[in-house]
């Protein structure tokens, strides 16, 4: 819910105290209200009007140092009322104009950092597409509690262990609703052969071609460590057996094989992710469909409208019985 003047504390008592000539609280009230106005995630009309009334009335009465501090704090604020700017200008203080975003990337980051703005579906799609490549933006979006875990699936590689678990559970909840045909065993055999030969380039190419992944699919990983997490999802989607996946982890890369903890984490990921869930996570991370290399025949329900219905056999025509001649007298 956007910040409103109704959410701010009642300062009427302090304003009454400010009229006491023996106790000057006007600078304190002005600075506190300025800090609250600048820090507000969003400002509605009531809040802007309340700040305008208070600040425009107090600025002519405070000392030069306080007025200068307020002008500096309000610099770049996009919702600064013109009456407040004019009051500061009367005292010879200019307020820096609101800084326009330099480009779309900066505007997207500001939008993601503002918890008071509800992000719509189309805007979220744009933010997620950018966050796949920008780790800072990905961390901001992952930290927002108002975005469902299922919508954050494209950022699975950027998430921590808790975030990955939540995203994985959300994806698994719907992954089984789509058919996931069996992958041909020839793909798994080819991957094992490439691993045995330590042909890393051939292994990556074979895996990508077998699943229909983009040519540079490993570039979706934000760092070298997460590349093997991405490969593990791909191995699960390719329907490798657990023993074959472990062979890949222990053979293809010596740095991974030397770390028992790393191998264990990859095996755990392989075990806990269904093939359909791995397919959907890959599709979300890469922003492209993962092609299945199983049965390519299109399934057509027997009762579908476009299904050719078998014609009923033609009814056997019974031979006409010989007519009996009516005997006439």
TrEMBL record:
Biased region (Basic and acidic residues) positions are: 296-309
Q: In which domain of life is the source organism classified?
A: Bacteria
Cite the residue spans of the region called Disordered.
296-317
Protein's recorded name: DUF2336 domain-containing protein
